[in-house]
Write a structure and sequence with these properties.
single chain, mainly beta, 70-stranded antiparallel sheet, about 60% strand
Length: about 900
């Protein structure tokens, strides 16, 4: 086992962090990216890389490189992490030609210039970081092709796709809107010389289901399909009013593969080899809307593999039919060998033959009346069923590699290893039953033995679960013993096969356990008595050989000592453990660095820290380990508590994430939160565990973002931004507080005002706006959520409703949110009108033409009504009506 030298570096840094204000080691120089632009730790998946931004007089220089070393991108950022680009940023193709230049302001795109073969090709303007006007060229890894979209006033106007030449073989569409308001796609398709192959038009709704024939998509013209990588002609399909007129499919060589000519509701197809030889001809009824042959027809029908990488396009299936009835079917492998053949007779009789990879006969099955009669029925590659004169006499299961695993004849199953040796036998109730009676049953998972289950008189008496981890030092198996259906014992084994732990059970209740090392020596014993743990308990990392904790208990079940270990990995990715904490319930407890040096020490009394410093390691994050350094005085947290983020990568890096002043167990004083680059992120002050005093937040460059104050844990004075809880639907908000009182509050989404709240005569007045900017709801509520809701509706008029304790009390409400699945109740109801008071309610259902369908009424409070509670989601409606008083209310109660 090799331990990285950087472990020593971490220990040294960690100790410094206990006494210094802020320390950080340099991060790893190189970041690797995959084809999708995501960071990856696997070098073999990377397609480009970057170094840490370099600070200059003009900002932070950011560069990316292809694996060849050729520069991919260069530009300046105003932030140390390289995310906030500023000015012109240039991207390059791997041959060194410029791909595009983009102008940034405060991290937002403003202008893009695309290049092709070193020459300026197109330009585009951006607004709100989105393309607004002009054309851009983007390489799409998923398509192995370039996308060339054009935008007009922020909307997509056209999109073309090409691989090597924007003026060569390509296809794309332009969007327009017709007189009916439908968005249309107008396609154009070009060959390798840039010559027009066809034009095609359709509605821009590719996956919509159409309930009415008149609503079918408009499909007119010649549609061309292409192979990709490289881009070549694949098919030409001609449409008229949504129906196919003809189609031609081609090999990659350009030779004709298939031609379909349609006359009315009948089509004739001819199939060809790549050398032009006729393979077959077929005629039959045709679905011209969805482009396929219906049932029936006469002739030879051929289906091909979709082999886009080769020019041969091998035959997958050949079907011969006469007057709509199958005569013969043949299925072929990609290498051309016959895989399966079926010859059809009358009344469901047929003969089915299967062939191996070399094309030799492997199985034959005779069918009668559509049922297996004699031979081998291949249900799948893992299971075969044997039939003799109409009766199933055996079932055979196989390993994925093809060797026999289980052979079941009548009620007896025999199990084999891959060498063909018998490893177990079991008796079942019957051939088709999987209920074991006696013997040992084996089960596979991912072609490996997963379970071994032993049965006696129909009851499971033992189960062995096997584990097949590809990582080292993981457990190999778990063995469970049952008596009369109750678990009595459970054994866990190391990766070496040696016993790790032996648990004694009484059903679900543990009675005792013994722990062993790999040499068979006992390392701990624990008894469970009267819900007390007595002895030594050993906990392991999840399904691992490695110990995580060792705890010793006294006769009263109280903890005496505890040792805590952390898991690390050497250079070969083999895990090992290091002692992290040695805790004495009464006495000195010590905390250690990865190199074994002492980090901190504390005195414990009755199992709790009393004085000194402890180190907590609460959780593991994918990016870092979190350590919390806590000083104690007379049993209370007292002093500066530090949260340290430790990054387990070369070179090791540890940074302070937070520093908080504690007095007598509570935050009292300054609290600082930092960015990973060491810059201060938040400065705030606490008093008796509550926010009290100044609050200042900063960006990564040290500029103030927000500044306000708290009093006794509640906002007190200032302009608060982006701090509202329960507001995932809001991306821009602010509220002004003056001496604990709300002045105003605005919620916005994409710069559109959603809600506006202010104080009016001691009540909160909230106006909720529609998408068009008109007000739809006005709420007047006091601090107890009593008041009124005014609904604004130009068609239905205004209605004022009374709210009591945050719930509807009386008035008229309109609902579109109800259980529309209950069609027998609501039928074609479009919306509901409910009039209510404390003692009764009345419901009227309307259809989409505002015509009344039915009425319901009860002389009881709506909260007591089964109809309301079951079918009408009043509470859900009210949340939509005013999320304000259901969830945001707490943000305005500052006193």
């Amino acid at each position: 086992m090799t331990i990285k030298l950087s472990t020593w570096l971490f220990a040294f840094t960690f100790i410094l962090l206990l006494t210094t204000k802020q320390t950080a080691l340099a991060q790893s120089d190189t970041t690797w990216y995959d084809a999708s632009g995501y960071t990856t730790n696997l070098r073999e998946r990377a397609v480009y890389y970057s170094f840490n931004p370099i600070k200059t007089d003009s900002g932070y220089r950011v560069e990316e490189f292809y694996l060849s070393g050729q520069k991919k991108m260069e530009g300046l950022s105003t932030s140390a992490d390289g995310q906030l680009m500023e000015g012109w940023v240039t991207w390059y193709y791997e041959n060194g030609d410029i791909s595009e230049k983009v102008f940034y302001e405060k991290g937002n795109r403003k202008k893009c210039i695309s290049y092709w073969e070193g020459e300026k090709f197109s330009t585009a303007e951006y607004r709100n970081n989105k393309a607004y006007e002009g054309k851009i060229v983007v390489y799409a890894n998923s398509r192995s092709a370039y996308l060339m979209p054009t935008y007009r006033q922020g909307s997509l106007h056209s999109l073309y796709i090409f691989e090597n030449d924007p003026n060569g073989i390509r296809y794309g569409y332009t969007l327009t809107v017709d007189n009916d308001g439908d968005t249309l796609r107008h396609y154009k398709f070009y060959d390798e010389n840039g010559e027009l192959l066809g034009k095609y038009e359709c509605v821009d709704q590719e996956f919509e289901m159409y309930a009415d024939e008149e609503d079918k998509p408009k499909k007119n013209g010649t549609f061309v399909d292409y192979y990709s990588d490289p881009m070549q002609l694949g098919a030409i399909i001609k449409y008229k009013k949504g129906n196919v007129l003809s189609r031609k499919d081609y090999y990659r060589t350009g030779a004709l593969r298939e031609e379909v000519i349609i006359e009315g509701e009948t089509a004739t197809a001819k199939y060809y080899k790549s050398d032009g030889t006729l393979l077959g001809e077929f005629s039959g009824p045709y679905n011209t809307e969805y482009d396929y042959f219906k049932r029936g027809g006469t002739g030879t029908k051929v289906d091909f593999y979709d082999d886009k990488e080769g020019s041969h396009m091998p035959v997958r299936e050949i079907v011969k039919r006469e007057d709509g009835e199958n005569v013969e079917k043949k299925f072929y492998a990609r290498n051309g060998n016959l895989k399966r053949s079926i010859k059809f007779g009358d009344n469901g009789d047929r003969v089915e033959k299967r062939f191996n990879d070399e094309g030799n006969l492997s199985h034959e099955l005779i069918w009668k009346n559509n049922d297996p009669y004699h031979g081998t029925f291949v249900q799948n590659s893992m299971m075969h069923k044997i039939y003799e004169k109409g009766e199933m006499t055996g079932i055979i299961h196989f390993y994925k590699s093809g060797e026999k695993f289980r052979n079941k004849r009548d009620s007896i199953a025999t199990y084999y290893n891959k060498e063909g040796e018998v490893i177990a036998k079991a008796t079942f109730e019957s051939l088709e039953s999987e209920k074991p009676i006696e013997g040992t049953v084996m089960e596979l998972f991912n072609a490996k033995l997963r379970y071994e289950k032993h049965y006696k008189h129909g009851k499971e008496i033992k189960k062995v679960e096997y584990f097949h981890y590809k990582y080292p030092l993981r457990i190999s198996k778990k063995e469970t013993i049952y008596v009369d259906g109750r678990r009595t014992r459970e054994k866990w084994y190391y990766s070496t096969g040696d016993l790790r732990s032996d648990f004694i059970y009484d059903g679900y209740r543990r009675k005792a356990v013994a722990y062993y090392d790999k040499d068979g020596e006992v390392i701990g014993k624990l008894n469970y008595s009267n819900r007390k743990e007595i002895g030594t308990e050993v906990k392991f990392f999840y399904e691992s050989d490695l110990i995580r904790e060792v705890t010793k208990y006294d006769e009263e079940g109280e903890i005496l000592t505890k040792k805590i270990y952390d898991k690390r990995y050497d250079e070969d990715k083999v895990p090992y453990t290091i002692l992290e904490a040695d805790i004495q319930s009464n006495g000195k407890s010590k905390y250690y660095a990865p190199d074994g040096s002492k980090l901190a020490e504390a005195e414990f009394r009755v199992g709790e820290p009393f004085s000194g410093v402890i180190v907590e390691h609460p959780s593991y994050n994918a990016d870092y380990d979190l350590y919390i350094i806590k000083p104690f005085k007379e049993g209370e947290v007292h002093g500066i508590v530090k949260e340290i983020k430790y990054f387990d990568k070369e070179p090791y890096q540890a940074v302070v994430g937070r520093e908080s002043v504690y007095k007598e167990g509570q935050r009292n004083g300054v609290d600082k939160i930092y960015y990973l680059n060491g810059e201060l992120r938040i400065f705030q002050h606490y008093k008796n565990g509550q926010l009290h005093g100044k609050y200042i937040s900063y960006d990564e460059n040290g500029h103030i973002e927000d500044q306000y104050s708290y009093k006794e844990g509640k906002p007190y004075d200032g302009l608060f931004k982006n701090s509202i809880p329960y507001t995932r639907d809001i991306d821009d908000n602010e509220y002004k507080i003056n001496k604990g009182n709300l002045v105003y509050c605005n919620f916005k989404l994409d710069s559109r005002l959603l809600e506006k709240t202010k104080m009016v005569d001691g009540q909160y007045e909230t106006v909720i706006y529609k998408e068009n900017g008109t007000d739809s709801i006005t709420l007047m509520l006091d601090e107890n959520r009593n008041g009124s809701v005014l609904l604004h509706d130009r068609e239905k008029g205004e209605s004022e409703n009374i709210i009591k304790d945050g719930e509807p009390w009386s008035g008229t409400f309109y609902f579109t949110d109800f259980d529309k699945r209950e069609t027998e109740v609501f039928g074609e109801t479009e919306y509901l009108k409910i009039t209510l008071d404390p003692n009764s309610w009345k419901l009227i259902a309307y259809n989409m033409d505002d015509e009344e369908i039915f009425q319901l009424a009860e002389r009881k409070n709506w909260k007591e009504s089964n109809v309301i509670s079951r079918y009408i989601w009043v509470d859900s409606y009210l949340k939509d009506l005013s999320f304000f008083y259901k969830h945001r209310w707490s943000t305005f109660k500052f006193k």
